[in-house]
Design goal:
The protein is α/β, with parallel strands linked by helices. It has eleven helices and nine strands. Bound molecules: ligand C2E and calcium ion (CA) (3 copies).
């Protein structure tokens, strides 16, 4: 309101000050985290809609802060993106996951697709292709096992260099998935400029799929479109069997969510896959 008194002004300023302070604190802590082994990775399996076999895993970063405990990636990825730290996080996540999966003998046998989340900044600059190449050269075999998940927003932020880097990785077999699909504003013609093999339906559409007609229609449309473009569709955030039934019935290829498996560490993943194989 116009009549906001001096008190209100002060409140605003101090709140903003605290907010900015918290962010710079978090940034400093994140730099320390990268140097001090506080980051780790977890894996969430993805399942074939019809056969209930594991088709791949998505790698997700975790931060165990020494004082504040677990901090969600939703709280620090954006700050890392805005401050040039995200490429270091991407490097860490890729190397760590490839190393762990390989050490446990899971690559190419039990796990045939490993999806990494990448950001717009991962595609900026001359070195970005070399960076991906250096990380992926840790693989004991070919690169077609790797998939990069990027959001529409990230793709559009830097379309030319994103396309250039993706195309060169594509030549080495790397797959591309469009994450959080439906939440951005990209046009189909834009998307067609990128070498995309997979669409991930955002969990905000999956949530009410069995009860909300509009969401149901929207998901049907995404599935029809993906089919026309010969893309695979993965639904994320599947929590109930009603959601799963709907998605399977409508022809969604793969499902991911708490209904099937939560993100887990490498030891747990090895056990999970072993049990699945013997059952
Ligand atoms: P995302 O890529 O959309 O990942 C899906 C998020 O949903 C993950 O949260 C996952 O743990 C969570 N999830 C999986 N199944 C379910 C479910 O059935 N129900 C619900 N409610 N949630 C589910 P997480 O791990 O906290 O990651 C949050 C976001 O942070 C990710 O969203 C991604 O955008 C970003 N992120 C995570 N790891 C990385 C990374 O290594 N690099 C980058 N650049 N971003 C990352
Ligand atoms: Ca993702
Ligand atoms: Ca997503
Ligand atoms: Ca998301």
């Amino acid at each position: 309101a116009k009549s906001a008194g001096p008190n209100q002004q002060r409140t605003y300023k101090s709140t903003y000050g605290e907010f900015a302070n918290q962010r710079s604190r978090l940034l400093l802590d994140l730099k320390a985290a990268l140097a001090n082994d506080q980051l780790s990775v977890v894996y969430q399996p993805q399942f074939d809609a019809s056969k209930h076999t594991v088709t791949g895993v998505e790698v997700l970063v975790r931060w165990q802060h020494p004082q504040q405990g677990f901090i969600s990636p939703d709280q620090f990825i954006q700050i890392a993106e805005q401050n040039g730290l995200i490429t270091e996080i991407t490097d860490f996540v890729m190397r760590q996951a490839i190393g762990e999966l390989n050490d446990h003998g899971l690559l190419y046998h039990d796990v045939t697709r490993v999806s990494f989340n990448v950001s717009a900044a991962d595609f900026i600059g001359e070195r970005s292709r070399e960076r991906f190449a250096r990380n992926l050269s840790q693989l004991p075999g070919d690169w077609s096992i790797v998939q990069l998940e990027l959001t529409e927003t990230a793709a559009l932020l830097n379309l030319d260099s994103v396309r250039r880097v993706l195309q060169s990785l594509r030549e080495r077999g790397v797959q591309v998935s469009l994450d959080d699909f439906g939440t951005g504003y990209s046009s189909l013609s834009t998307l067609r400029q990128l070498p995309i093999q997979e669409l991930k339906i955002d969990q905000s559409f999956v949530r009410d799929i069995a009860t909300n007609m509009n969401d149901a229609k929207l998901v049907r449309t995404i599935l029809a479109m993906a089919k026309a473009l010969h893309m695979r569709v993965v639904a994320e955030g599947v929590e109930t069997s009603a959601q799963a039934s709907f998605l399977i019935h409508e022809g969604c290829h793969e499902l991911q969510g708490y209904l099937y498996a939560k993100p887990m560490g490498i030891m747990q993943l090895a056990t999970f896959l072993r049990n699945l194989r013997s059952s």
